[in-house]
Design brief:
The structure is a homodimer of 239-residue chains.
Chain A lengths: L2 E3 L3 H6 L11 H10 L1 E5 L4 E3 L7 E7 L2 E6 L5 E7 L4 E2 L10 E4 L3 E7 H10 L3 H25 L2 H15 L9 E3 L4 H8 L3 H13 L3 E5 L2 E4 L2 H8 L8
The structure holds a DNA duplex (30 and 30 nucleotides).
Chain lengths: 239, 239
DNA sequence: CGATATCTTGATAAGCATCAATGTGAGTGG
DNA sequence: CCACTCACATTGATGCTTATCAAGATATCG
């Protein structure tokens, strides 16, 4: 089910330069690209599974995917949504610590771990770059802990919408149009809520005129100011 | 209120070798130690505050501290408890992203950021080491997201007790004795609960004979097996 | 040994989950 | 091309979990 292809001059032109190479010397960047191949994964298919041997490090080139962890009884926590430029499977562990699943069709750069590890030692500045990227993910994780542990449903959903808008700034024409590629279920598992609560909260925001919903995946932020207030706890609960 | 002292031959002998130096060549380790000074912080005093200019990177040598983030209205999320060997303030940002406060009296190694940054570039293997440490923190953060987003109170508290025991394995004589230096309030803000719920849950575990509580900070795990079951959702809620 | 912060316990209520049913849209095959 | 189907989203009724408010018990420290 999974499509593979080795890298070639053509594919290197087709896709944007590897984010981890940006700013590195050309010869070095070429060396990194030399060990990379690319892989496409269809929407709703897994890239890898929690517990699998962590044979590869990936970088998202196109599309969006989600990372999640499971409890024995099936409860799920989505730990992040990854857009192009993000790395996954970097943790230096024998096995993957979470499952990665494509939300849309996804294109990835794949680096075999053994070769990637060698690159880290041999390419000056690469380890530092990866450190910066990981610190950034850690910061995001800490923000998410604050959200999960201390925010009410309205604040969570408002924060999520603003984060999505932020993430898509400069993509579409309208700054207030947000495209939501993931299902309500995924949003819920990301925010520590249920599908129903996410849906209800969105409906409520729509009724208040804060957002508009033409299709479930197309949201327009009508009142960013109000949304920011809600994200900071201006809506009764917990405030 | 804060005690400062420059590093000296004596203090280098007094404290365990810097964790970030472990395994590095002696000359290199000495070079890292040369830019470090140490700092002690009394219990309940701040090491640094969210938003302060991030002038230093620290490493915990002795004692325990907590990291937390605040919402505008005062709600608090403790993102981690740090024991010796852990780094803080590493994120490459102009300002600290969280507040660090001593729980017990704490001793820290302090590295001025400018010099620390230079070391990262110049000491081979250091960036890689820091990368590994940060990946580990990220893993812990993802585990905590699962806890905050998807576990009930009993599971949270049980998980916390087991993690504390794990962390202290090999310290005291009895493997089942857990010393809890932080207040109920801090535990609550770490687990996304209230002080009252933490207290009630502990009382309940005590009544069931799963733990015993002589003083609030001294807990003995009487039935680790049962505790593990509870941590995995064997207690009605959410299961 | 007394004062104060911390912890524990109790009663009540809010917020969100759960269970159940209906609505809606994308994709499929006749 | 259209009806059909199925997955997904929405809406509603109810109950559980945990927060909140309030008071009392227990530790810790000067």
């Amino acid at each position: 089910m999974l499509a593979f292809a080795t890298s070639s001059a053509v594919t290197r032109i087709d896709f944007p330069a590897l984010a981890i190479c940006r700013g590195l010397e050309k010869t070095v960047a070429a060396r990194i690209a030399a060990v990379a191949s690319y892989r496409t994964v269809a929407a709703s298919k897994m890239v890898f599974c929690e517990g699998d041997p962590s044979d590869n490090v990936y970088e998202v080139v196109r599309g969006m995917l989600k990372l999640f962890k499971l409890l024995p009884d099936g409860r799920r926590q989505v730990t992040g949504f990854l857009s192009p430029g993000h790395l996954l499977g970097l943790a230096h562990d024998e096995r993957y610590l979470y499952t990665a699943e494509a939300i849309t069709d996804v294109t990835l750069w794949r680096y075999p771990r053994t070769q990637f590890d060698r690159l880290i030692d041999e390419v000056p500045g690469l380890a530092r770059r990866l450190l910066a990227a990981t610190c950034d993910e850690l910061r995001a994780a800490q923000d998410q802990m604050l959200l999960l542990g201390r925010m009410g449903a309205a604040e969570k959903v408002a924060s999520f919408l603003l984060a999505m808008a932020e993430c898509q700034a400069g993509e579409s024409g309208d700054e207030d149009e947000v495209h939501v590629p993931m299902a309500r279920n995924d949003i819920a598992d990301y925010l520590g809520l249920t599908t129903e609560t996410v849906s209800r909260t969105l409906t409520h925001l729509k009724r208040e005129g804060v957002i508009s919903l033409s299709t479930p995946s197309h949201i327009v932020l009508q009142d960013r100011e109000r949304l920011s207030q809600l994200a900071e706890g201006d809506g009764a609960a917990h405030a």
